Please model this.
Amino acid sequence: MLDYETLKLIWWLLVGVLLVGFAIMDGHDMGVGTLLPFVGKNDEERRVVINTVGPHWDGNQVWFITGGGAIFAAWPLVYATAFSGFYWAMLAVLWALFFRPVGFDYRSKIQNATWRKTWDWGLFVGGAVPPLIFGVAFGNLFQGVPFGFDDSLISTYTGSFWALLNPFALLVGVVSSTMIVMHGGMYLAHRTVGDIQRRTIRAASWSALLMIAAFVGAGLWLRFGGIEGYAITSMLATDALPDPLAKTVVRSADAWWTNYARQPAIWLLPVLGIAGALLAVWSVRAKRTLTAFVLSSLSIVGVIGTAGAALFPFVMPSSTHPNASLTVWDSTSSHLTLGLMFWAVVIFMPIIVFYTSWAYRVMRGKVTVEQIRANEHSAY
Model:
């Protein structure tokens, strides 16, 4: 079995892979849902939009479920503390997600304009709200979350839901939202033709440019806007049993940039986030839609990787009790648990990738208004 320290680092990487996988796979579904009321001008066009993701959205939810399960099993203290601090935010995500299964299933069951338009906006909510809230949550991580532990490692959260909606966190929410709309737009442009495709290309291009502006703005704010980062000054060995209270953490104005100073190679991540989005815009406008989708996926890797590299080794910093901040080294499960889960990922991750790839290959091709008219009684 791999040693404990290595497994802790591997699981930090694996959780990151699952988050990126969720953003790429389920993210383009959400992006399409966000665009639905705007790029589809009538019922037939909106059915075209829905049918591009209808056969796949529930399979893509595997990434979301697996990511949550991985955090629960690999980082139980993070899971428990996050759901205490972000309880109402997570409930808002859950309530928004309710609109997706019922919207996809019920939307076309009745030929009534009001009924269908209502579910179209429900799918919009289910696509637009989760990325915004996830981005706001990430923005709060950089500022620190107000929580602490007692001697029994029972966490206490002292903040409020409204305090999460601070200006910096909302800006990061804009980064997340526009990134997902960009990505969904690249996918939708690949699967559609004509007027729908033209509207989608325009929306995706503007979303990509807004994402770049917000991404750069958030970085400059983090560097020069007075947001202090966190740095560990002493702690137990990285291969020791987890004890989040057995370390000393200080706050510093430039702490979030320390990893970039030590490892200049990771500057490639924000470059990838920006360049991927710009090249995706160029590609989609040149009607190289599959290339645009791949490039927007790489942009997502760069944006999420940028945040992860800045935070490392912190996972959930505490603003009120910095020494209680949760890190890669002191918030994990046991050595045995991490080892068993690692081999489960080695076995099952390729299966997930294989069947997902097969499903997209089988259902590839353009979705058109003519197909919708010829299949009036289809599910979506």
Q: What stands out?
A: Residues 4-374 form one domain. The first helix runs from residue 4 to 39. The chain has a mean pLDDT of 92.
